[in-house]
Design goal:
Layout: E1 10-13, H1 22-25, E2 33-38, H2 53-71, E3 81-86, H3 93-104, H4 111-126, H5 129-134
Parallel strand pairs: 1-2, 2-3
């Protein structure tokens, strides 16, 4: 039904306590778009999580599989899109992971993005959630 109405189901990476692993174990695409949402894996402080490159690595294969599936569906002027959203936002974690993931996918980072990644890593390494809340 989702494919019929061109609605993308959201594939997620979430804390194991959410019991949503089935949303990350399957690949679901619509006619021309797909959506992945990274919530982080910390169940005690929601969305306060920095993924390691090792944790993101299995998603590289999934993204490649999604690209293969959706590229095969492109016809005429339709554009296939894969939207990836990092929702692990505290202390610049989403920015760090989004830029690292882009790099892991082999997509070159612009000079501006490289500077942003360097800045956010420095900021993250010197900032704690407690210090943000106290400000």
């Amino acid at each position: 039904m989702l494919k019929h109405y061109d609605i993308a189901a959201v594939m997620t990476d979430s804390p194991s306590s959410d019991n949503l692993q089935f949303l990350s174990e399957v690949i679901v695409t619509s006619k021309n778009h797909s959506f992945i949402r990274f919530h982080g894996r910390n169940s005690k402080q929601r969305y306060n999580y920095l993924y390691s490159r090792e944790e993101l690595q299995p998603w590289i294969e999934k993204v490649r599989a999604i690209q293969d599936i959706t590229l095969g569906k492109i016809t005429n002027n339709n554009t296939s899109k894969l939207r990836i959203y990092f929702n692990n936002h505290y202390g610049c974690k989403a920015v760090i992971n989004a830029l690292e993931f882009k790099d892991m996918l082999g997509m070159p980072l612009s000079d501006k993005q490289k500077k942003a990644l360097e800045f956010t890593k420095r900021y993250y390494s010197t900032t704690t959630l407690d210090s943000i809340i106290k400000k």
